[in-house]
Specification:
Shape: globular
Largest sheet: none
Number of strands: 0
Radius of gyration: 20 Å
Distance between the termini: 21 Å
Strand content: under 5%
Number of helices: 14
Order of helices and strands: HHHHHHHHHHHHHH
Structural class: mainly alpha
């Protein structure tokens, strides 16, 4: 089983390299990260906060929007695209199960996304320490940002596979992927904010809102990272969330893992019932 999954992973990695996905993903994250790092940390002197700490906060906000989008773009046509082109039928003639195909593709795409995150964010951290007066005290926070960003990407990669098994063509899968990104990353927060305003500190705010916040993978990622830094709360206006949030902050990580495993399991189940 492991050998068959590894074979699919290697084949997908070769395709990603040939299609320049590895370079493209790393370039996108690296470009935005460098712009935020060297153009968006001017206030650090007056706040008395380490320059790298402010950069970590900015990168956390960037990850909420960019990493889910990259994850969906990598995976939305992983199944339906090959079925549409006819290559999936050839792949299924080999002695390999459909769940192994999904797992092999997931591992390969997760490696591509992780490489981009490590290269982009890690490169920014090294550059800031080498070229500016940034200290090394925020390196643990940067490391936490990197592995949680990879976990956020894994959740949306899995959602991309689920979308791919529900779509008949790559075109419809692309539209559904963009819709999912808009709903979960943008519109979800707007809806929660509107509900908070209408509730005005009532039952929804105290009992339901925390669960809805932790349930969304993008919000869970933001909550876990930003509430870990006192300076981050000051800079982003999230002051007080970490101390008043009624649920343990690690529930956000549990939510990310649950989304990843649940969506990946659904994609495998759905793929078993698809015509190649």
């Amino acid at each position: 089983m492991i050998k068959r999954i590894a074979a699919i992973t290697v084949a997908e990695l070769k395709i990603a390299v040939r299609n320049r996905w590895v370079i493209l993903a790393a370039a996108i994250l690296g470009l935005f990260a460098f712009v935020l790092a060297f153009a968006g940390t001017a206030p650090t002197g007056s706040l008395g906060v380490d320059r790298l700490t402010i950069t970590v906060v900015s990168l956390a906000s960037l990850s909420v929007y960019l990493v889910p989008l990259l994850g969906l773009l990598l995976s939305f046509d992983a199944i339906c695209g090959e079925s549409e082109q006819g290559t999936m039928l050839l792949l299924l003639t080999y002695p390999i199960s459909r769940s192994e195909i999904v797992l092999g593709k997931f591992v390969a795409h997760f490696m591509v996304l992780s490489f981009a995150i490590i290269g982009g964010y890690g490169g920014v951290g090294v550059a800031m320490i080498a070229l500016t007066d940034a200290g090394t005290s925020a390196l643990p926070e940067l490391a936490r940002l990197i592995w949680t960003s990879a976990l956020l990407g894994a959740a949306f990669l899995s959602l991309g596979y689920a979308i791919s098994t529900l779509s008949r063509s790559a075109r419809s899968a692309a539209g559904l992927a963009i819709a999912i990104w808009l709903i979960m990353v943008v519109l979800y927060d707007i809806g929660l904010l509107g509900a908070l305003v209408l509730d005005d500190g009532g039952t929804f705010t105290k009992s339901i809102f925390p669960w809805l916040l932790a349930a969304n993978p993008a919000d869970g990622f933001r909550l876990y990272n930003l509430t870990a830094l006192d300076s981050a709360m000051i800079t982003t206006g999230m002051s007080g969330i970490g101390t008043t949030f009624p649920l343990p902050v690690f529930t956000a990580i549990i939510g990310l893992i649950t989304w990843t495993l649940g969506a990946l399991g659904f994609a495998s189940w759905r793929f078993l019932r698809m015509e190649p």
